[in-house]
Amino acid sequence: ELRARYRFGKESIEYITDLLADNLRRKTNRNHPLSALQQVLIALRFYAIKSLCRLPYMISLFAFISGLFTNIVARWPGSTHDSFMFRSSNLCSYIEENHHSLDDGILLGDSGYALRPFMMTPYINPSTPAQVAYNDAHCKTRVIIEQTFGRWKRRFHVLHSEIRMAPEKVCIIIGACAVLHNIAIFLSEPMEDGDVGGEANED
Fold this sequence. Notes:
The chain has helices at residues 2-6, 10-24, 36-48, 82-87, 90-98, 129-155, 167-186; strands at residues 57-63, 69-77, 107-108, 119-120. It is mainly alpha-helical. The protein has a two-stranded antiparallel sheet. The chain has a two-stranded parallel ribbon with strand order 3-4. β1 and β2 form a beta hairpin. α2 packs across α3.
């Protein structure tokens, strides 16, 4: 039940609390402050449950095939195309300056991205067996990334919907969920496929 409510087991919750304890611990006991563990549990519970409305903005995330998030940008309006967000990102600038060969790795993008030395995109109209085979391999590899987003949202139901807070706080919550997702993978936390409870319903 602990994992169903908080998405983490006891040892993982203790690990997260230890990471954050110095930042969460109050300097005095005035007004009976919450302990670091209590604050972590409250945050994890909030991330695990659903909110009320749809997200009105775009989130740019990049993930390894291993399922770990490597870069996150959560500051653009919902109408912004993800390829524009990438071109405007520090990650793109870094790769442009430091990518020299395939040994440096590649990114996989859909047809909305421009073909670059470091960005492989599918053929729009494949006309040869080689192009069809390439598109098939590209699709099968990208689906792993798409599954990462699916697991991320299943783990933290708050990501299914709009968080009714100031945009700055929403960005912090999204970033926290990405970091917690990586921690869950490092600690081999199993997924809880079912909903946490009936606190709220998705639109």
